[in-house]
Amino acid sequence: MKIGIDKIGFATSHLYVDMAELAKARNEEPGKYLVGLGQSKMAVIPPSQDPVTLACSAAAQILTPEDKGEIGLVIFGTESGIDNSKAASMYVTELLDLPENIRSFEIKQACYGATAGIAMARGYLALNPKKKVLVFGADIARYGIKTPGESTQGGGAVALLLSGDPSILEFEPQTSYLAQNAMDFWRPLGHSEALVQGKYSSQIYLDFFEKVYHDYLSRTHLSLADFSALVFHLPYTKLGLKALRKATENATPELSAKLEAQFEASREYSRNVGNLYTGSLYLSLLSLLQNSEDLVAGQRIGLFSYGSGAQGEFFSGKLQPGFKALAADKAISEMLLQRKQVSVKEYEEIYRSSLEIADNVLIKHDDDPASFVLTGVKDAQRKYAYKLAQ
């Protein structure tokens, strides 16, 4: 049977900071961020938003009442967990009014979490072909103000509805993966901001890509020419471009140019949002589908997932006829255009306030246009609201 992605939703904050302005404030040349990292704008996440609210906003875009009744499994991939015990997915099932006769849990392995969720979902759907699975990649990337990693922050959520007979992308059976214990990026217990060895992490990313990509080709007897596009996990978009150029080192100029043009389409959203951690790869896929003019049903898309620590995987899928409806939808590009720019000073104030959420204090959310908001913490319990239901 076919198993794959039937629907994709995406949500981020209504606020952003311009990367050229951030570069100037940090006494850097704007080109270091705009070209060297490949980033133009960075999402700024207010205190009223967290991985739960972002995930709910992403899922609400795509779920119908019929979908909700058919969901048997919810998997929440995140490395921005809000509790050391309780899964973020539990809040989501209530806020989205999902049925209670489901399995629901959270999964963590840095930026690989959503891909791990997809692997589990494929097994579940093979045994339950009439069911659907909701997989989230939702995170807020934080490294700290005036740190080396500051320019690769961001945040948002991707919601993937997986099913048999999918309308967007059918996963192919073969996959290649690699795991190694590496201290390239981590966030110790009690830390709200990540620790990273930037150059080391980037090099491991590229090493993992080469290993799993070539292993995949060896296992499948495919070649680069069999792919119409490659999409990547993009902590910053220039890193994906470096990986692509490793794949095209021995390719013809025509094939290299075609794949690089597709890559430009795939990084458009990430360039203007920043790092999504677990959702990044799937935002790249969504961006490709909505910004490329050269895709047709039946074409093969290669996907590279990477999570520091470290886990990598390369797999592929074939476009299904229904992807055209998603490709024609302009809601996400319009949402990104309608966001409000904040100054660097405002961004810093919002950042600090998001780290200082106190118990038994209400969180201001009147100016947040999102339907799902975090309203506060009472007796160490997070409180959420669906504003349209009030």
Automatic annotation (TrEMBL):
Enzyme class, broadest EC rank: transferase
Boundaries of every Hydroxymethylglutaryl-coenzyme A synthase C-terminal domain copy: 175-245, 248-352
Protein's UniProt keywords contain Acyltransferase: yes
Protein's UniProt keywords contain Acyltransferase: yes
Pfam families: HMG_CoA_synt_C (PF08540), HMG_CoA_synt_N (PF01154)
Keyword line: Acyltransferase, Transferase
GO biological process: acetyl-CoA metabolic process
Domain Hydroxymethylglutaryl-coenzyme A synthase N-terminal: 3-163
Record-listed E.C. numbers: 2.3.3.10
Residues that hold (3S)-3-hydroxy-3-methylglutaryl-CoA according to the record: 143, 242, 275
GO molecular function: hydroxymethylglutaryl-CoA synthase activity
Entry annotation: catalytic residues: 79, 111, 233
InterPro entries registered for this protein in UniProt: HMG_CoA_synt_C_dom, HMG_CoA_synth_N, HMG_CoA_synthase_prok, Thiolase-like
Family that this chain belongs to: Belongs to the thiolase-like superfamily. HMG-CoA synthase family.
NCBIfam families, per the entry: HMG-CoA-S_prok (TIGR01835)
Protein name: Hydroxymethylglutaryl-CoA synthase
